[in-house]
Every structure is written in C-alpha cells, then in structure tokens.
Design a protein that fits this description.
single chain; alpha+beta; seven-stranded antiparallel β-sheet; 30% helix; disordered N terminus
C-alpha cells in the first residue's frame, strides 16, 4: 500500500487500485485552487475536453470531475458519467483521444464517484486540438496557445515522453597529467530538466532568485551532511557554503562547495566537493527549451586519515571503506534537496513557471573510482563468487513514490542501495538496511 501519497506526480503514475477518496481529498487540500497540473469540474461539461487537451499540451496532470472548482468541495457524480466523458473526449479532441478515467467511490453508502482523468505526459500525440484550437495551461487558467507555443507544439517530433535517462552520468574527474584521478572514491549526480516559459527565454537569471537558491542549499540537510563527511573531528567549525565559482554567465550559474579538516594540506583536493549547475535556454550553444539543473557530489574521503597523518596525499593512499549508512544518507539528502520547497520556488521563478509544475528528480547516478566492493564497507555483506565487478549504478526513481515524503523517499533509497549491491555481486544489503535508522527518524534530523 502507498502511504500518504498525495502529490500530482505520484498520482500520475500510481496504480488505479491505489486511488481512494481519502487520497483525492488530500490532493485537493494540498493543491488548493486549480494549478497548472490539476483542474476541477463539478460535473460533466462541454469544457472537459478543453481542460484535458490543455493539460496534455502543457505539463500533463489530473482533471477531477465531481469537485467544485471554486470552493473545492468533493461532491461526486454518477457512475454513468464515465461513458459521457469518454464519448465527449473522443468526439471533441483531435486527433481522437480519451485519457484514462479512474472512478473513485465516495464510499459510506454513496453511489457517487469522483472521476480522475489522468493525463500522463508522453502517452498521446501533441498538440491535441479542440475545435481546431490548441489549448494550454497557464498557472490556473486555460487559454489558446499563442503563436510561439503553437509553433513549438507542432515542431515536436515523435513521442513527447521525457526520456527516463534525462540526466547524463558523470565522469570521474581527471588528473592534470591525464587519466582518471585515483583518489576519487565516488561521484553522485542527480538533477532536474523541465520546460521553461517563453518569458524565461528572454531574460537573464535573476541574481535575487539565484541567491535564494544558494541560500536554500546552504541551509539544507545536504550542507550539514557534506560538512560532516568532509571535516570530521579535526574541524573547528568554520563556515562552509555553496558560492559562485568557476564558469558563470547571464544564463548559467555554477555554485561550488568544498571543505576539509583543520590542517588540511594546501594544494590538495578537499575530501568532499559539491557543484550545483543551473542553465536556462538562450546561452551560446544551448538552444533547447528546458532549464537544466545538475547537482554533483565528489568524494575523496577514504584517504582522509592518511592525508592528515602525512601532511600530503600519498601516491598509494590507505583506504578506509565507506559505510552503507553514510552513502544512503548522502543519497537521501541529495534527493530531498531537489524536492525542498525552498529549492523548488527559486527554480520555478527562474523558469517563470508555477512551483507545482517543477517535477521531482527522475534518476540518480553513482559512479565509483574503484569497484563497489572496494569502496563500500562489505563486512556485513556476502560476495557472490565470480559475479564480476561493478563501478556504480544508474538508478531510476519509481514515479509512484513521492520523493517529498520522507518515508517514501527512504523506501526509494533502500531500493537503490539493494540494486547497487546486487549489481556488484553482494548479498545481504536488505538486512543491513533494516538496521539503519532512516534520516527523518534520527534525533538530529533536519526538516
């Protein structure tokens, strides 16, 4: 059973059997007035097809029939309304198309239902027309597409589905003299790609919004965890934060974070580095229609004690294994950063879209500098004979899980850890994870 999943994204991909009237009510309470991805209709009306087409031509979403659009009271409709909705959509939408219709009973002896019309991106051609007009969603309103948006819709080719692997895997950093840097333990990357409005195509990135974005990163649980990983007991408590560094332009932002323990030798790469990159269309060589956000964490923590002891980084460093708990907590912190309201709101402002239209992360990459079995602490794990080495994992998010929900997010992280272990020929990860307290249940957990 799903636990408390009420986000539009989750309900777009959840099994129909998971829909209950309690979850529908929770979604209505959470979303409030109509949003770019949610529309309400009190009953069957001639505007249903227009609403469906507008969702399809924009971000996808849910149209709820049986909920008043102004007061958002759940009233329900008769079951026979399903046939009327299906016939109406097929007749009015061009090319003919009918969204999935999920009847959710009100229960308690009622014979009424809320009809959830589910418009999942990529499962239909675009644009969808109604009476020859391509409608789109703009915040909470539906209106005909302007000439520029109409041109973009007709210019689309093939499936409109966003590729599952919408984020390129990172590379291990290179040494100045060439070749992979042997001191790197792992690189983890996650991020977001989502369409921007036409308004964002004509303006530079707002310094105020970028500063709000950096402030949110600096106040996140990720910042605290990076500091804990990189500084350890030898740190006296100096400030660490994401700041602009490296290639920055009017439409590209690079924020870097790095820190090391006290007495860390100068000229030596810090144990942990993180980079957040933002890019919107319009910069030289970038002519797409999407905002790209990548978040990388590069770790060189296995030789930290050796570096502190010798005062230099040895050619053949002593290696300390990284615990399963540390890696799982880092992954969890990276994902929660991308769904935090404090992060989502400045991203939405930079893209000139509603925050509800900012998607959750789709995937995460873990690339290791050595085989997983040599980086991870495998004391409690069992090696499968002749299983072959693995140097990381490319991991997809289950779209039916809500990454903003702490328990659902931890469930996803544990599934990823199990996948990475099995790919590396290691058994016993499920048992190890059961002994770990999820970050959101820890006494010092950040909100």
């Amino acid at each position: 059973m799903m636990r408390g999943v009420v986000s539009t994204l989750s309900l777009l991909h959840a099994a129909p059997s998971e829909f209950t009237i309690e979850r529908v009510r929770a979604l209505v309470r959470q979303v409030g007035p109509e949003a770019p991805t949610v529309e309400y209709k009190e009953q069957m009306a001639d505007t249903v097809a227009r609403g469906v087409a507008a969702l399809a031509n924009t971000y996808g979403g849910l149209l709820l029939i049986g909920v008043t659009d102004k007061t958002r009271v759940v009233r329900g409709v008769k079951e026979k309304t399903i046939d009327a909705v299906a016939e109406h959509c097929h007749a009015k939408i061009e090319p003919p198309w009918v969204p999935e219709i999920i009847p959710v009973p009100l229960g308690q002896g009622s014979d009424l239902y809320v009809l959830v019309l589910r418009v999942v991106p990529g499962l239909y051609p675009r644009p969808l027309l109604v009476d020859g007009v391509a409608y789109v969603r703009d915040h909470s309103t539906t209106h005909p597409a302007d000439w520029r948006r109409l041109k973009d819709l007709f210019a689309e080719t093939g499936s409109t589905s966003e590729p599952a692997w919408n984020l390129q895997a990172p590379d291990i950093p290179q040494r100045p003299q060439g070749g992979q840097d042997p001191t790197v333990d792992f690189v983890i990357r996650t991020g977001l790609n989502f369409p921007v409005s036409a308004e964002a195509l004509w303006r530079p990135l707002s310094e105020r919004s970028v500063n709000a974005f950096a402030d949110a990163l600096n106040q996140s649980r990720l910042n605290s965890l990076l500091r804990s990983l990189s500084l350890g007991p030898a740190w006296s408590g100096g400030p660490t934060h994401f700041r602009r560094e490296g290639f920055n332009r009017s439409r590209e932002v690079r924020l870097q974070w790095s820190a090391g323990p006290d007495n860390w030798p100068s000229g030596t790469d810090h144990p942990v580095q993180a980079v957040a990159r933002l890019q919107i269309p319009g910069s030289y060589g970038h002519h797409g229609q999407q905002l790209n956000f990548e978040l990388d964490v590069v770790a060189r923590i296995s030789d930290m004690a050796e570096v502190l002891q010798r005062g230099v980084r040895p050619v053949e460093p002593g290696r300390e294994r990284i615990s399963v708990q540390r890696l799982a907590e880092l992954v969890d912190a990276m994902v929660v950063t991308l769904v935090s309201r404090r992060i989502v709101e400045p991203l939405a402002e930079l893209a000139a879209i509603d925050p509800l239209a900012v998607p959750q992360p789709r995937n995460l990459h873990v690339v290791m500098g050595r085989p997983v079995s040599e980086v991870l602490d495998t004391t409690a794990l069992t090696h499968i004979p002749n299983a072959g080495p693995s140097r990381g994992a490319h991991l997809l998010v289950d779209p039916a899980l809500d990454m903003a929900d702490a328990s659902e997010r931890w469930k996803q992280v544990t599934l990823w850890m199990e996948q990475a272990a099995l790919d590396a020929g290691l058994l016993g990860m499920e048992t190890v994870l059961k002994g770990i307290t999820p970050p959101h249940q820890a006494p010092d957990s950040h909100p």
